[in-house]
């Protein structure tokens, strides 16, 4: 091997050693940075502004990978946008999703209040009505009526008290003493406290019905639909029933 070849081999060896040294330095630097940054984790960042009480949809947040040590302690790392949660405050674009930023939609709308009444467990609820359902509230009353001869009599009357009342909660079964008009004594009834979200006028109607109606019943409104508001046609009394029955019986 002549001197020129020996110099070439030496330069190649120096280049290889230099490359190894550079690789070791870079690997050490990356390892050091990784040690300082720590493990990565998933979080969520808002891609647009979300106003208070607006739903947090899939388009409003994006999933990002960030070092765990850089995330706020309250950062949310698992979020299901299908739950229908809403923003509890005005959230700017770029903010990280944290605990307390998302909550269930408010159950009460402006002008509404909670009101709870006792409903007969067997005829009024029957295990079919759940929280969040819309129901029509019916009441049956004893009303004093005057017939064509001027005589007064008590007539049974049924009417729609409130339509599309939202159920907020259904309580535990209770047993209460109720007057038995036929036996002149008291009997035990099984009732369930049901809480509704109603405005002031409907709250007064429901309170009156609970106090003076002989029975209060709930009728479940089909999901995705709403009942019409009660009117004069939604009142049925005993005289109308008897008149309809007699007319039907006298027909051909």
Automatic annotation (TrEMBL):
Residues 108-220 form the Flp pilus assembly protein RcpC/CpaB domain. The keyword Protein transport does not apply. The chain crosses the membrane at residues 9-30. Residues 225-252 are annotated as: Disordered. Keywords: Membrane, Transmembrane, Transmembrane helix. Pfam families: RcpC. NCBIfam families: pilus_cpaB (TIGR03177). This is Flp pilus assembly protein CpaB. It comes from Kineosporia babensis.
